[in-house]
Amino acid sequence: MLTSEAISPDKVVEKKGTYGAHSLGAATGMSRHEGGMTVTAEHGCLAVRVVRHGLIRVKLFVGAGAEAPGLDMGTTVAVVESAEEETAFKLRESKEAYFLETEAVSAIVDKSDCSIRFVDRSGRVVAHQRGMLWNEKNAVTGLFAASSQVRYYGLGEKTGSLDKKGERYEMWNSDVYAPHVPEIEALYQSIPLLIAHEPAAAYGVFLDNPGRTFFDMRSEEDGYLIQTETGSFDYYFIYGPQLKDVVGSYTSLTGRMELPPQWALGYHQSRYSYMSQEEVLELARTFREKQIPCDVIYLDIHYMEGYRVFTFDPERFPDPKAMIAELKEMGIRIVPIVDPGVKLDLNYEVFRDGAANGYFCRKQDGEPFVGPVWPGQSVFPDFTEDRVAEWWGDLHKFYTEMGIEGAWNDMNEPAVFNDSKTMDTDTVHGNNGNPVTHGEVHNLYGLLMSKATFEGIGRHIGGNRPFVLTRAGYAGIQRYAAVWTGDNRSFWEHMAMAMPMVLNLGLSGVSFAGPDIGGFAHHCSGELLARWTQMGALFPYCRNHSELRSIRQEPWSFGPDIEAICREYIGLRYRLMPLIYSVFRESAETGLPVIRPLVLEYPDDPNVSNLCDQFLLGSQLLAAPIYRAGTDHRSVYLPAGVWHDYWTGERLEGGRHVLAYAPLERMPLYVKEGAIIPHAEVAQSTAELGGADAASDVLAFDLYASGSSASAFEYYEDDGLTVGYREGAYNLHRLGLEVEQGSIALHVETAHAGFDGARGSWRLTFKQLPFAPSAVEGLPSGEDAWRFNAEANELTVTTRRPVEELRLVIHS
Ligand code: GLC
């Protein structure tokens, strides 16, 4: 603990005025290169390359000797999109500048100082990189200009608010048990993507450097700084003009999440640790007895023998295979924790095998890097080597042969219990024959571990989809793993912080994310658990997890009232699973996040630019959780348009704040007019939701057809389990709703029909009708069953699942 002495006058350090004495200086020439131009300057050169029309890469090469022909334009594993050769661009030169022009945006390099302006087609300057300075250690500072109205988003998993103006962050994957407070600059994930939302346009800057870097939106009044400590200054300018375009473009560059297995979207229960096979089975039975849905139980480190990964403790877990089979019968899966630290133990097969083959990271003297983690002194696989990644991936056969299809990667910053909290920065990574130091690639360690795990499990589960959960990651982590936000605490503040944190992760490409519901450390209360479960039920990743010293926080730990609330909201998640799954598919296709800050959907509304205590699930549902103790009212901002209270149906004009009444059992939830919400009956496991196993053959849609509006929704379904969808085993229906004076038209177009396990009937409930209906036109022959419930003001039609097209018109 610090005392006031920390701020004694003699501890004040003067702010240094400069960010480095060296710069490129004036340009001396320009040459054309495949994909762009290279500008040579007095003290280095600048490679400017076109990846796509709105995506331009800039890489700095320091030093007068930097010559154009041999430039290393390699990227990190984060980048999956390479320059499209066909992208046409023009190069031009004026007295003052060099111009690289694409259809969407041009990069203009000023000859006098090599500063770069990114200009849109109308000639507006979207971004201005004013210069790059470096010091004698080649640590680079890039200076970017910004207007006073700028808002900053992205940057992955950071504390603080949604808008990052006035903040400074460090990108250095760190195991931070405590504290997760606004002044903490580095956490477990490092996603060096800054999104600037300017009045002129939104754009992103992605710095592809997995060493230690900084994003500083505080120190300069009229802009921001991006700084590297090692490695290259290699960034991508990502043109919008909308925020959604930036997210789409960034995820095209760094890849998108693959559609997860549906069971990974269910409710997950964890604890550090469920100590024995019997305890796990008892836990599962309790879920089923209490009729609280659950898909996954986690095994934390105590399942292992002396914390050796790829083992089970024979006393605590004498027959894991039988346990897993019994759980599967109940619709529950096991996900075990797998840390990277391998116990240094000559009698341990994994250690012996890895050591014999040189699979572990080494110090400069060739000896393995050894550091303490849970098992004691441990060594760490060198995931930069493909052969090591493959070995590690295949070790998961140990689990997959027991019926496990997912893994939880923790401590993969990597965390080490030493002074630096991680691997020595001069440790060497083989990197497939191009050795690099740990300091240069530190932030890649977690991503590469998850990649090896995802691909390894995928090789051994016969065409099913693997699931990986990770703590550490770098840009692109979304391709391999879901992210949970680490060791938070059972504080109301941490519940509130989870919103901006997960929303910004979503804007940074990581859609599938969530916090430990109820809080990991400290002690939860019934009220906190109820409120957090309400919110968590609509988060992309939904897991309750807590640490060994804290009081229990399973849904029933605080008595029947809290249990009932948890049951209802976890149940709501399962009821909404057809919607959630469709939104996940949209995210996998487009990169747009599953839950969204309002600014993403309403970028021009000044009320939402830093609004982060409410969020949208997809674009149709708006949740406004209560995140304070003893509170049963809150202000909710409803953006322009008409909204309906999800619980009461009440019609509310948007574009204003409303006061929501929210007693403990109620989380304020709103549906946008025109919304099309598919849902199912509550199931105890997602296994009961799909196809033949579904409890009912009817899929329901709620259509909020209240006013004059037009809306659309894409409903997606497949088997939820295998990769068959990649070969076309899925159905995609495009639903369009048009409400006009005196008629409501629903148009369903089947864009793809390749999955035959779908439910046979659809029940369409048109809610909040603007008129009393007299006829429904367009039902398939033999079907004329529609019902109007005047009291509820709802019209229900049940029809066979549309095979090709359906056009229903409801007349007044
Ligand atoms: C770390 C993880 C936590 C886990 C614990 C024990 O603190 O963040 O989730 O329970 O290690 O494995």
Provide structural commentary.
Residues 46-216 form the Glycoside hydrolase family 31 N-terminal domain. Belongs to the glycosyl hydrolase 31 family. InterPro entries: DUF5110, Gal_mutarotase_sf_dom, GH, Glyco_hydro_31_C, Glyco_hydro_31_N_dom, Glyco_hydro_31_TIM, Glyco_hydro_b. With 812 residues, the chain is α+β, with helices and mostly antiparallel strands. The protein folds into four domains: 22-254, glycosyl hydrolase (family 31) (Immunoglobulin-like, Sandwich), CATH 2.60.40; 264-484, Alpha-Beta Barrel (TIM Barrel), CATH 3.20.20.80; 595-671, Sandwich (Immunoglobulin-like); 697-811, Sandwich (Immunoglobulin-like), CATH 2.60.40.1180. It is 17% helix and 31% strand. The chain contains 13 helices and 52 strands. The longest helix has 16 residues, at 492-507. The mean pLDDT is 96. The structure holds alpha-D-glucopyranose (GLC). Alpha-D-glucopyranose binds next to loops.
